[in-house]
Structures are given as C-alpha cells and as structure tokens.
Design a protein that fits this description.
- The protein is α/β, with parallel strands linked by helices.
- The model has no long low-confidence stretch (mean pLDDT 91).
- A hairpin with a 2-residue loop joins strand 8 and strand 9.
- The structure holds guanosine-5'-diphosphate and magnesium ion (MG).
- The site of magnesium ion has 4 residues, from helix 1.
- Belongs to the TRAFAC class TrmE-Era-EngA-EngB-Septin-like GTPase superfamily. Septin GTPase family.
- Pfam families: Septin.
- Keywords: GTP-binding, Nucleotide-binding.
Length: 269
C-alpha cells in the first residue's frame, strides 16, 4: 500500500493508525514525539494477523508533493517508484532460473489524500489522479475529515465523485472490471462511499473506561475506529479484508500486465 497526497494531510499519521488499529492488537511502541516532515519514500512492514491468517503488510509513506512554486511533474517520483516495482518483478520473471516465488514489492493500492477544502478537486489532484489510475489501483480519501461537518463531508464526496466522472478518473474498484452481477452490487455500494472521509491518529485515549485510538480535543475525543466518527474502518476493511485479494489480482492482471506489454514491445523494436 502506498500513501500519497500533499504534505500535512496526515499520511505519516495514517501509517501508524493502520498498524495500531485494534484489528490486530499490535503492541507497537507508542510514538510520543511529533512526526517529522517526510522527506523521502519510506516503507514500514509488519506482519499482522487477520482471522488467524498472517499477512505481511507494507505501507509506503511518501513526501508531500505540490509544495513547490512550480508543481510541474511533481508526481514523477511517485510514478517512477511504482513503475520500478513493476520493473523489478518483470526482471525476476524474465530470469531463466526464476525463483518459484517472486518477491512482490508491487504497489497493490495507492491511497490518495484529498485535502478537506469542501469545494472540489484541484487541478493538481485531477492531473495526478488521472496519471495514477492508469498505473495502479487508487483509493482516494478525504483527509483530516474532522474539519468537515457530516453534511459537508457528504456534499464534498458527491462533488469529488462528479469531478472524477467528468475527468475520467477511474478509481478502485473500477466499474469495467466488475466480473459479475454480485461484484457489481457489492462494488456499486463501495463506489458510492468513496472517497472515504478519514481521520488519523497515533495515540490512545481513555473514553468511558475504554482505550481508543483517537484525537483528543477540548470537546471530546474523535475516535478513529468508531464509524459514527469517521470512515477509517471502511477504508481498512476494504484494503485489508474484503478486497485484499482482488486488489492483488487487478494489480497483477491489469496494471502489471499493461506495464509488461509496454516494456516487451519496447525491447522488440
Ligand atoms: P503528512 O505530511 O501527510 O505526512 O502529515 P502528518 O501525518 O505528518 O500530519 C501533519 C499534522 O496533521 C500532524 O500534526 C498530525 O497530528 C495532524 N493530523 C494527522 N491526521 C489528522 C486528522 O485526521 N485530523 C486532524 N485534525 N489532524 C491530523
Ligand atoms: Mg509525512
């Protein structure tokens, strides 16, 4: 999984939120120091346990883009990282004595953080999203959603969906890849919920005797894993439970395949 978006939207915090959330009761040390600004791509891997199954999850954090005066090509480092992983996999596949199990560092999902402006997608987001969707599975989220009211979140989500439609931004789960009617029913429901409005936190607080992951404010704790507070759980369930295998299949059968064909055509010219 790779997290991307402008800086300050909570990507680095989300890495910790993902690993600290209760699902796998990880006992990672709590971070009491503020997270520094992310200056380069950085991957964190942990083995998490899901219903008795061990799963190796790698989350790659990226520096925020679009902070420069000239943001031309600010997506290049991210896209080239994604392509490098395809290239590595391809080189392994092409070896005559290839390993039975090729180490797979390909990005199976890219979570794109949209700033909670409440207006619409910015031209920079549109351009980046268009490029990303052609290369990798993309799940957009409304970042720092605690800054929007429930009505604002819904209106903003609708607007983003419209913008994505207008600009042919085909995020995951892609309509054209639904395999049957059951897929279509399940995925249509998810498509209506995307982008999820998420809140990230890496600290636990005591709420009515329970220890919860959340953000403490003067008026209470925003609980990350409470569906009444935000949609982090929907995101996590999609990525790590319900659609985990599908994300990997589409990466292999569609995105990697596109890359492979392109590269092999190149080398035959
Ligand atoms: P990054 O630049 O995208 O990696 O963002 P960071 O994770 O470094 O977070 C930047 C600041 O935003 C930190 O002070 C975080 O505590 C704060 N932050 C992270 N997630 C949220 C969120 O969901 N809501 C709010 N209000 N603040 C957040
Ligand atoms: Mg960061």
């Amino acid at each position: 999984m790779l997290l991307t978006g402008q800086s300050g939207l909570g990507k680095s915090t989300m890495v910790n939120t993902l690993f600290k959330s209760k699902a796998w009761q990880s006992n990672l040390p709590s971070l009491e120091v503020p997270i520094p600004q992310t200056l380069e791509l950085h991957s964190v891997t942990h083995v998490i346990e899901e219903k008795g199954l061990k799963l190796k999850l790698t989350v790659t954090d990226t520096p925020g883009f679009g902070d420069q005066i000239n943001n031309d090509k600010c997506w290049d480092p991210i896209l080239s990282y994604i392509n490098q992983q395809y290239e590595q996999y391809l080189q392994e596949e092409l070896l005559i004595t290839r390993q039975r199990h090729i180490p797979d560092t390909r990005v199976h999902c890219c979570v794109y953080f949209v700033p909670p402006t409440g207006h619409c997608l910015r031209p920079l987001d549109i351009e980046f999203l268009q490029r990303l969707c052609r290369t990798v599975n993309v799940v957009p989220v409304i970042a720092r959603a605690d800054s929007l009211t429930i009505e604002e979140r819904d209106a903003f989500r609708n607007r983003i969906q419209q913008d994505m439609n207008t600009h042919c931004i085909d995020v995951y789960p892609q309509k054209c890849l639904d395999e049957d009617i059951n897929d279509r029913i399940l995925n249509s429901k998810i498509r209506k919920q995307i982008p999820f409005a998420v809140v990230g936190a890496d600290r636990e607080h005591l709420v009515n005797g329970r220890c919860v992951l959340g953000r403490k404010t003067k008026w209470g704790v925003i609980e990350v894993e409470n569906v009444a507070h935000c949609e982090f759980l929907l995101l996590r369930d999609l990525l790590i439970r319900s659609h985990l295998q599908d994300l990997k299949d589409i990466t292999h059968n569609v995105h990697y395949e596109n890359y492979r064909v392109l590269r092999l055509n190149e080398s035959h010219q």
